[in-house]
Amino acid sequence: MFNPTTPLESAIAAGDADQTLSLLRSETPEQRRSHRAGLLRMLKSLEDAGWKVATGTWTGDSIDQQELSLSIAIALCGTARDVMDARVDIDLLIELGREFHPRCLDELADTFLKASPNRIEAVQQLIGAGLVSRPDTDDYILGLIALPRVIRSTQGLKALFDADPGLRPLLLRVFEIEGTTECSLASSDQYNRVHGLDWVTLLLSMADDGLTTRAELLDLTLGALEKDWPQYRSGWFSRFHAVLDPDAATLRARLPRYLALCASRIPPTVALALQALKTMDLAAPIDADALLNALRPVMASSIKGQLEAAMKLLDRLVARQPERRLSTSSLVAMALLHDSAAAQASVLERLKSWGVDQATRQQLSDFVATVAAVNRPQLLQLIGEAPTAVAADVNASAAHASPSAPCAASSPLPTAHPLDDARRLPRFDDLHELVECIAHVFENATDVDAFERCVAELVRITPLAEDDRPLFGPVRKHAARVKPLLPRELARLLIYVLDGVRTPGYANQDHGGNLSPVESLLNERIDALMDLAAQGRGLVPLSAPTHQGGYIAAEAFIDRVAQHGAANAVSTELEQVAGLLRLMPIVGHDEAPALRARARALVDAPLTRALRYALGDELTPDTHRELFAAAARIRHPREDDLVLDGCHPNLGPDGALMARPTWRVHTHLHRYGDKTTTYYDLQVDTPPVPAQTPSTRLAVRRHPPGPNAREHYRWWSFAGIDEGAVRYSATLLPSDPEAFFADGVRAVGNNLDWSEAQWQNRAYLDRLLDPVTAMTPMACLLLVLALFGKEPGQTAIAVDAWVAAHTEGRLSSAQLLVEPLTVLIASPLVKPARLHKSLQAALRIDARMQALVFELLCAAVTVNPEGPPRDMALLLSLLLELKVDGARPLPPDVQSSLSQMKLSGQAKQLRAQLLA
């Protein structure tokens, strides 16, 4: 509720725009500025009221007039930032500006554009009205880039050009800056579908109208390409260069620039330069020295097409100047670093044809250890007269780099244990350390272990001594501003501990309208911890992990139950269930009898009985089904509890009976008009969660609430779209990550082509890197899926996780990966070329992966020989390399499949080599 205290505020509250304007006309600029503080309070009050309240100062029947009156006052009394925050109508601002020329206009254009380039239309209207000067800043150029996408109308853009004749020639300045993630020439044209408003059309029309020339546009394009902006943004300029389509004479006039572009780090830029050099060389030969120097960096390119294009230029050079053969051979030899055996073979053929001198032979000897095994005999033949000692060293190096022994011969590292001392979460030494950790969580929203440490300590130290409260001042101030899940839930608990105020929690929803179950559960857990803290017993919560990844040592949990009982502390059922699910299973361990004996000594209570059941004690489950459902997951990890199922049937997946997710690739058609599009989805099915399942049945609630149906374009997800929520969800039942990885399979498997940026999905893959993570069926499926992924960062994590799991002995059999691989490779969901890239990356990391990769490739080529997938040649080339390098025989079923396979081109040649 806002109470007016001045005539101006009363006029605004009354919605009297004429009176508001009259009062301000009678004042000097200095007098108007004195109203600013009160007007901002009015604006805050109006925003808090939601602009639609029907009682109090802001009444529903005059709200529009009140808003108009306030806008007039802020425009004449406020700063440029005030005008932007108040969203003053631009037409009103222009009208007022012409009469008053308020001080806000002096900085309004810069303020608008610093906030967002999408405000360029308003800035241009002000420029066209003569009220502001044209900014000479990068922000203005960024606004120009956004202009077509903002206007979305050719008529609207023409009106701006007519109002500001100096605008259109300035469009050439868009070549000067890179742009941003949200605003660049590439993104503007990608998302703007209005005909005639793409930047290619706009720029070419300027040349047609005489405002520029195609030559100038070409020079500006080359200038942008020379800056080596990121590929997505620089790719627009490469495409624009193709549209300009300069002839050989135009290109020749800029020969030094194209030669220099061969050293670009952006692949499309290099491809453009090579094509331009080809066009020029065909018209008139390029100087040999200049060409050789320019192509030197291309010889180290990882892109096979660029390498081939460069070598064809060198073919023509050697054909017309045979005396250049040896120097060209020395240059081309660098390309033997390429991963492709076919590319290496192409290089070796040229070296054989052109000849090599002694210096080049010595250079070639360095490549014996890295060149593909199928090409090594030809390379050794070229080396020819290399000294015996050098040849011996090279052969020894090659043998070390590419061992032919099976992977099983290498000793895996000792398997880590979840309760290793190195994984124990340390206690805080003092409150200063706690404050630092809280600040760390506020800035690192995905550190679950740090979050759990802070939560447990805050509960333990409540009530906080008055002398200690000032220590928390900085983090208390920050607590009101944090947004991600873990920081904001920690902030809720912190505010309660310091101020005694319970702020409500909330759960985010994804774009499909699905609330995150994990966020709702964490809200409930933090509320429960507030209740425990309010009791002031100085206790560590039952659910607080003792070790990384969410694990609780059984002996620690027994101690906590005893301490809570002795203090008569009351914990919610959610806290008790959460603690039980985090227990490290002990069934079959040496210390199990002693731990059971300690648990039997506890005071009899429902939690005590559930704990004894979890530890494997002989007793019958009682009526507390939620506690015993949690205990069953620890007593029978990844197994069924038939006793509990007999007492309490139909508890749901991962209640008494373990969930056994199944998966399939689903094909569905979408028809729009006369066009039909085929989509492929990866569906993960589990038994349905029973209706009205309590939220405290945590293990069950990790599964979809009903049929695995797609809502809008996003699959149901237990964790939602917050990365911290994903990582937290893995700690609810750390000893059985199968449901967690099933969630990851849904997320990653339905976004392999990166049609939507889902950065939170890396949290599923990071869990595979943990040396204590069991490679369950869903974990293996997730790993294989990620090896087919498009996003390089996530694929790199998958490759690292695969190598780590193999080295650590967590992948007991290649069959764990073979089964999902063969199903996926037979489906249209995945692209074999990406798998080939991932397999090569794994071999570069650890050559001991050879036998495993060979086995996977053998399985892949036996899938559907009548209709092999595209890019089969890549898989066959790697299979041939491993066969030759390790002298490995092809299994009979692989030979049979290869002989039946319908192949052509290079794949057909590779088959002949494999079967020879």
Automatic annotation (TrEMBL):
It comes from the Bacteria. Residues 721-914 form the DUF7825 domain. Residues 516-639 form the DUF7824 domain. Residues 155-304 form the DUF6493 domain. Coiled coil: none annotated. Transmembrane segments: none annotated. It holds the Pfam family DUF7825. This is Uncharacterized protein. The lineage of its organism: Bacteria, Pseudomonadati, Pseudomonadota, Betaproteobacteria, Burkholderiales.
